[in-house]
TrEMBL record:
Residues 7-141 form the VOC domain. PANTHER family: GLYOXALASE DOMAIN-CONTAINING PROTEIN 5, GLYOXALASE FAMILY PROTEIN. SUPFAM superfamilies: Glyoxalase/Bleomycin resistance protein/Dihydroxybiphenyl dioxygenase (SSF54593). InterPro entries: Glyas_Bleomycin-R_OHBP_Dase, Glyas_Fos-R_dOase_dom, GlyoxalaseI/FosfomycinResist, VOC_core. This is Catechol 2,3-dioxygenase-like lactoylglutathione lyase family enzyme.
């Protein structure tokens, strides 16, 4: 990938409790929290979790919606659902995620095969919801 290639930098998810959401994404999904301690200390407005070296999920408190002023109507996006976010994982991480979700009794869809994505058809994929109802797809390619 070159510096002239567009990349997804981050996705902002509205959540009720950003600290709890960060713990879910760390413990159940296996992502690393970023700025969580600083958020808890009141030094940052929201924490994130790292998807990859150059991509984050920002966990924005839904109570902050009224302060969204970057565009007219931006505050109205709070609670407006994104269809889903997809995480592409190595095969072992995919299997480990499925196991961690089962251990925590997090409902997940059946595993499907061949769904299309950024790298073509996935070998396997499934969906689950985070504690705030955001839908996450997990997949792996071989």
């Amino acid at each position: 990938m070159t510096e002239h290639t567009a990349r997804l930098d981050h996705v902002v998810l509205w959540v009720r409790d950003p600290a709890a959401a960060a713990v879910f994404y760390e413990q159940a999904v296996g992502l690393t929290p970023v700025r969580l301690a600083e958020f808890i200390a009141g030094e940052e407005p929201f924490p994130s979790v790292r998807v990859s070296e150059d991509c984050l999920l920002d966990l924005m408190p839904s109570a902050a919606a009224e302060h969204m002023k970057m565009l007219p109507g931006a505050a109205d996006s709070a609670g407006h659902p994104v269809n889903h976010v997809c995480l592409a994982l190595p095969r072992g991480d995919f299997d480990a995620l499925r196991t961690r979700l089962e251990e925590r009794a997090v409902p997940a869809s059946d595993v499907t095969h061949g769904s299309f994505g950024a790298r073509g058809d996935a070998t396997r994929s499934f969906y689950f919801r985070d504690p705030d109802g955001n839908v996450v797809e997990a997949r792996h390619y071989d």
